[in-house]
Design the sequence.
């Protein structure tokens, strides 16, 4: 008998578990719209040309495999903060940002959560309802208490702005408000610039600390600057804030685990101290981060030619997703005779569409149509091709009725 008899079976992950089920399905029609990973029109994984070029350069230079410092690759940390805030931003000029390389978006969020737990033991995190499922796991494991603020309004398939503001207002002063920088996951619904201003007003009034999760910079709209709008607005307004970054989607570096945590402080002195404590938290967790992805990012962003080429490839990826979104909308509108308004599909931003299908309907999508998706009704348009839109539209209409 095992000493581990008391260890019970963990449930499958709600997102990654979908891919496992997909792999087990032998039907030719099967479609994996679960995990948010970019595919080509042929539904194949895509390695960006700029990544291949950067890797070639790296190989030619014969770089070694020595440990990085705890805070990661200096050249990466520099460019990642500049990409996020803008190189000419005063927070960078004044040395007020503590940036350390993280294990992609997830690891960066987790490190920040550990920091919150250690230095703000009484503070609570506020997360949107719904949100990316892993946010709850991250705060739970870091022992940061959290509660939800209203975000999605099923009646309009849009933003519940009044509910959001009311809930942020009702939270204890000094809470950490987790915000999706752009392309909210899973809804694809973002506040307007005017709404961001008002969200900043309440956060300021309540002395909360904004905590941005930026997993899609440049990947949502195709523009790095447009997708950083919300973060830069809050910085302009003088907030101290946290930002977790990920290069999984915009550079397609999913498995390289490359991202960063940035803490904007009101003085460079505070920034230095915060950085020292982030390093202290990282050391016993993973010691120091992996180098390969950091070098790729540093090479791509640091080289004007590669940087321009990256922007073009990002526009291409974002453009393909927008085309698929448009085609899906057209197919749904043409085929559905019920008079339902499908325009919400076009209003959503980023790689996901939040269909409004509930759990039983999502199960029907999988059981009858072999379409794999998360049970909250979210589909990844990045895993869809133009030629599969019609099939998907048939499945969605059938599952709604
Ligand atoms: N935050 C959000 C909102 C995400 O959608 C994702 C990726 N699905 C992440 C963070 C982190 O992903 P990764 O750890 O691969 O960077």
Sequence:
């Amino acid at each position: 008998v095992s000493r581990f008899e008391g260890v019970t079976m963990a449930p499958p992950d709600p997102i990654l578990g979908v891919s496992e089920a997909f792999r087990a399905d032998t039907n030719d029609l099967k479609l994996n719209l679960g995990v948010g990973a970019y595919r080509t029109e042929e539904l194949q994984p895509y390695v960006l040309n700029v990544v291949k070029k950067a890797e070639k350069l790296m190989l030619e230079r014969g770089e070694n495999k020595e440990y990085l410092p705890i805070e990661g690759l200096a050249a990466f940390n520099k460019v990642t903060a500049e990409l996020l805030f803008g190189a000419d931003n005063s927070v960078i000029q004044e040395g007020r940002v503590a940036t350390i390389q993280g294990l992609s978006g997830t690891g960066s969020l987790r490190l920040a959560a550990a920091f919150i737990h250690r230095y703000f033991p009484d503070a609570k995190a506020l997360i949107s309802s719904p949100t990316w499922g892993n946010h709850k796991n991250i705060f739970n494991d870091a022992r940061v208490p959290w509660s939800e603020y209203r975000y999605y309004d099923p009646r309009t398939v849009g933003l519940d702005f009044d509910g959001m503001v009311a809930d942020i207002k009702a939270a204890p002063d000094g809470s950490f408000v987790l915000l999706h920088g752009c392309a909210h996951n899973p809804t694809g619904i973002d506040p307007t610039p005017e709404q961001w201003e008002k969200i900043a007003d309440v956060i300021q009034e309540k002395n909360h600390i904004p905590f941005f999760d930026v997993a899609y910079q440049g990947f949502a709209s195709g523009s790095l600057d447009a997708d950083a709008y919300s973060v830069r607005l809050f910085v302009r307004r003088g907030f101290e804030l946290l930002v977790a970054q990920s290069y999984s989607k915009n550079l397609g570096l999913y498995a390289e685990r490359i991202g960063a945590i940035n803490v904007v402080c009101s003085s460079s002195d505070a920034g230095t101290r915060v950085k020292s404590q982030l390093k202290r938290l990282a050391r016993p967790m993973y010691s120091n981060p992996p180098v390969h992805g950091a070098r790729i990012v540093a090479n791509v962003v640091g080289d004007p030619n590669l940087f321009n080429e990256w922007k073009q490839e990002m526009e291409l990826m974002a453009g393909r997703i927008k085309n698929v979104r448009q085609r899906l909308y057209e197919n749904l509108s043409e085929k559905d005779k019920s008079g339902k308004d499908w325009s919400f599909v076009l209003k959503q931003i980023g790689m996901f569409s939040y269909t409004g299908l509930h759990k039983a309907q999502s199960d029907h999508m999988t059981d009858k149509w072999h379409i794999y998706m998360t049970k909250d009704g979210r589909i990844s348009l990045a895993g869809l091709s133009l030629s599969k839109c019609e099939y998907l539209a048939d499945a969605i209409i059938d599952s709604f009725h």
The pocket of 4'-deoxy-4'-aminopyridoxal-5'-phosphate is lined by residues 36, 104-106, 132, 180, 185, 213, 215, 246, 248, 254, 259 (CB under 6 Å).
